[in-house]
Amino acid sequence: MVGVRPILDLSVVKDVQLTPRKIACALLVPLLWGVQYVVIKVGLTAFPPLFFVGLRFMAVAALLVPFVKRPTRREVGPIVAISVFLGGLNFGLSFAGLERGPAGVSSVVNQLSTPFMVLLAWPVLGERPTRRVVLGVALAFGGVVLLMVEPSAAVRLVPTLLIMGAGLALAAGSVLTKRYGPFEPLKLMAWMAVLTVPQVFLASFLLEHGQLASLSTATSLDWLAFAYTVVLGGIVGFSLWFWLIATWSMTRVAPYALLQTVFAVGAGVIFLDEKVTWSLIAGMVVCVGGVAITQGRSGRRSRLASAPS
Questions:
Q1: What are the residues whose beta carbons fall under 8 Å from the beta carbon of 18, sequence distance 6 or more?
Q2: Where are the domains of the chain?
Q3: What is the 3-class SS of the chain, one letter each residue?
Q4: CB distance 279 to 143 below 8 Å
Q5: Helices 185-207/73-82 angle, 10° precision
Q6: What is the pLDDT at residue 250?
Q7: How far apart are CA 275 and CA 152, in angstroms?
């Protein structure tokens, strides 16, 4: 953990330019999160969704809190708000939607978080997207639409609405992180986890049953899925995401999140034997093309909004 702190210490990061390291991180995050859709489906066969979220954040808090400082007085309020949107609502709605709907469709619907981010970043952060960014996001969103019209996709209203709500919560939490940051990623992750645990455990107590029984009946594969969501999807994925948000324009970061769909569909093909159709291929190609357009030269005119002192 000591070895990664120089990379993730936002107090010393000043670079806002396009670099190979940032591109690699921006690709790694959606890869980790895309595969996680399949992994979560495995874990949800054993654990109730909100209870699963609570266990996940409890493990993240236990792993990180001993190694980070307490939040300052200025940081407490923003971290509470971020924990509600990025923690409780985002993960609670996502896991509940995944329990009821297919992983591939869920990953597609969740990409609505990208246009939500761009729209929220304009009034909240003052990051007005360039025409090229708007075109790229629209094209990438069109790719998502192509995936949505896949004939074999079992689109259901309730899980679709739950995942849409999760996407909006993710966008709001990400914009709040940008607005009130920069934060040290591991510090933010640790205390966001602490504050999220009571939120989702209370919701689980009110809405679910069989929580304790699931602990004794879970298999090794279920616990391996749980470990993935904690370490790779959680600590690694969100630490990199917070770092990208703090050091890169939101209009540059957000389109990369669309690649989750590509990786989620690929993981579904590999691990769940889902069929590959021409509409799926076309949707993924259009989606990646839109992301590529947003990263063209004109995108360099996007400026990092100044954080409040």
A1: 252, 295, 300
A2: 27-301
A3: CHHHHHHHCHHHCCCCCCCHHHHHHHHHHHHHHHHHHHHHHHHCCCCCHHHHHHHHHHHHHHHHHHHCCCCCHHHHHHHHHHHHHHHHHHHHHHHHHHHHCCHHHHHHHHHHHHHHHHHHHHHHHCCCCCHHHHHHHHHHHHHHHHHHCCCCCCCCHHHHHHHHHHHHHHHHHHHHHHHHCCCCHHHHHHHHHHHHHHHHHHHHHHHCCCHHHHHHHCCHHHHHHHHHHHHHHHHHHHHHHHHHHHHCCHHHHHHHHHHHHHHHHHHHHHHHCCCCCHHHHHHHHHHHHHHHHHCCHHHHHCCCCCCCC
A4: no
A5: 50
A6: 66
A7: 9
Q: Tokens at residue 174, please?
A: 């990400």
pTM score, two decimals? 0.77
User: Which is higher by pLDDT, 242 or 32?
Assistant: 32
What pLDDT was estimated at residue 309?
28
Compute the residue count for the chain: 309
143 C-beta neighbours (distance < 10 Å), count: 24
The residues, any chain, with a CB within 8 Å of residue 52's CB and separated by 6 or more, are: 40, 43, 44, 95, 226, 229
